[in-house]
């Protein structure tokens, strides 16, 4: 109960800050999560998160530490038992006057780290049954959120963008999985999850390359996955990472279907240095060569922290980044 009270207070504080800054949609900062994905997946029947882990060694300019990230494995038939996002939304909706946005880890999060080998073949001798159950669970989650009043969902999928990186493709191939097949497979999983959503529920997909303060987990432009992924998804918009050279250029946006919102992640959450508006405007003009300017938006390239370990940026440095987003958006609307 003491932890819950602290979480409630932190969420109220960060919601008030987002509202004061001028954001039209707000999140709860995922203060109830240890890892942005594991806390969701561990709620599923048939998933174990205590059998395997991989070690992350983080070295930043202000601190250094290591931590273990659980690797989810499938040990039984998948069923939806309870919903962390549903609980998060219920509280968030009660403490904001803006649009409450809920973030859900993508279905790929249950497959990519361990691959096919992380799925008990005694339970799922046919992997197509596993993927079908996974899509069904996500459709149930989306429907439950809608019935609770949620109208804005973001699906976070770093692993599709990991497949932009030759090193990650090599790792996937070395364990016996096919990196050429995975981008389309993961896009189809997301589409299967959102395809029946009501017309008045907005769903966006976030494709980043893994971020933790100054560190990133992958590199490579979207060229490697754009043709397989963007046309497959009926999402209303895409949050894409373009804050540094590892993210590549805007040319892959040519594969974006018409009518999709493209949210340019030009503001970096990995450095306290505040970007200058005069440097960002030309980059937006470059992106507009591939996507109509009216379909472009702007945001940070990722969340400030994906785990309980936090970020090296101070609260004020983070707030300054968000204020810049709002100011630049207003400037573009004026133009």
In the CATH scheme, the class would be: Alpha Beta
CATH fold label: TIM Barrel
Average pLDDT figure: 90
Low-confidence stretches: none
CATH architecture identity: Alpha-Beta Barrel
Query: What's the β-strand tally?
Result: 12
Biggest sheet, strands in spatial order? 5-6-7-10-11-12
The ordered H/E elements are HEHEEHEEHEHHHEEEHEEHEH
Topology summary:
Elements: H1 2-21, E1 25-26, H2 38-41, E2 44-59, E3 64-80, H3 84-93, E4 99-100, E5 102-105, H4 127-147, E6 152-156, H5 158-162, H6 166-174, H7 182-194, E7 202-207, E8 211-212, E9 215-216, H8 226-229, E10 237-241, E11 261-267, H9 277-287, E12 296-300, H10 315-334
Parallel strand pairs: 1-4, 5-6, 6-7, 7-10, 10-11, 11-12
Antiparallel strand pairs: 2-3, 8-9
Helix pairs in contact: 4-7
Polypeptide structure, described:
The protein has 335 residues and is an alpha/beta fold. The chain has one domain: TIM Barrel (Alpha-Beta Barrel). Helices cover 35% and strands 22% of the residues. It contains ten helices and twelve strands. The chain has helices at 2-21, 38-41, 84-93, 127-147, 158-162, 166-174, 182-194, 226-229, 277-287, 315-334, and strands spanning 25-26, 44-59, 64-80, 99-100, 102-105, 152-156, 202-207, 211-212, 215-216, 237-241, 261-267, 296-300. The strands form four sheets. Strands 5-6-7-10-11-12 form a six-stranded parallel sheet. Strands 1-4 form a two-stranded parallel ribbon. α9 (277-287) links the parallel β11 (261-267) and β12 (296-300). The chain starts with a helix and ends with a helix. The relative contact order is 0.11.
């Amino acid at each position: 109960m003491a932890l819950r009270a602290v979480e409630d207070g932190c969420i109220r504080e960060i919601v008030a800050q987002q509202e004061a800054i001028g954001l039209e949609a707000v999140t709860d900062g995922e203060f109830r999560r240890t890892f942005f994905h594991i806390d969701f997946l561990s709620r599923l029947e048939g998933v174990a998160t205590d059998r395997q882990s991989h070690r992350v060694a983080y070295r930043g300019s202000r601190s250094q530490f290591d931590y273990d990230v659980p690797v989810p494995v499938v040990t039984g038939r998948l069923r939806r038992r309870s919903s962390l996002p549903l609980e998060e939304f219920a509280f968030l909706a009660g403490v904001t006057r803006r649009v409450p946005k809920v973030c859900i880890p993508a279905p790929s999060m249950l497959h990519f780290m361990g691959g096919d080998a992380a799925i008990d073949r005694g339970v799922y001798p046919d992997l197509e049954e596993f993927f079908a159950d996974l899509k069904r669970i996500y459709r149930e989650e989306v429907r439950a959120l809608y019935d609770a009043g949620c109208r804005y969902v973001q699906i976070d999928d770093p692993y599709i963008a990991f497949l932009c990186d030759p090193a990650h493709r090599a790792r996937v191939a070395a364990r016996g999985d096919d990196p050429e097949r995975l981008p389309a497979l993961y896009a189809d999983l997301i589409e299967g999850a959102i395809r029946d959503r009501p017309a008045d529920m907005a769903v966006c997909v976030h494709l980043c390359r893994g971020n933790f303060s100054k560190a990133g987990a992958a590199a490579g432009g979207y060229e490697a996955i754009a043709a397989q992924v963007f046309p497959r998804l009926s999402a209303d918009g895409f949050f894409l990472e373009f804050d540094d050279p590892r993210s590549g250029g805007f040319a892959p946006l040519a594969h974006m279907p018409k009518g999709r919102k493209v949210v340019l992640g030009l503001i970096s959450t990995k450095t306290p240095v505040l970007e200058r508006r005069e440097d960002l405007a030309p980059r937006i003009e470059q992106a507009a060569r591939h996507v109509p300017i009216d379909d472009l938006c702007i945001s940070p390239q990722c969340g400030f922290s994906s785990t309980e370990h936090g970020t090296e940026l101070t609260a004020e440095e983070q707030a300054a980044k968000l204020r810049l987003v709002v100011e630049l958006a207003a400037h573009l609307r004026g133009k």
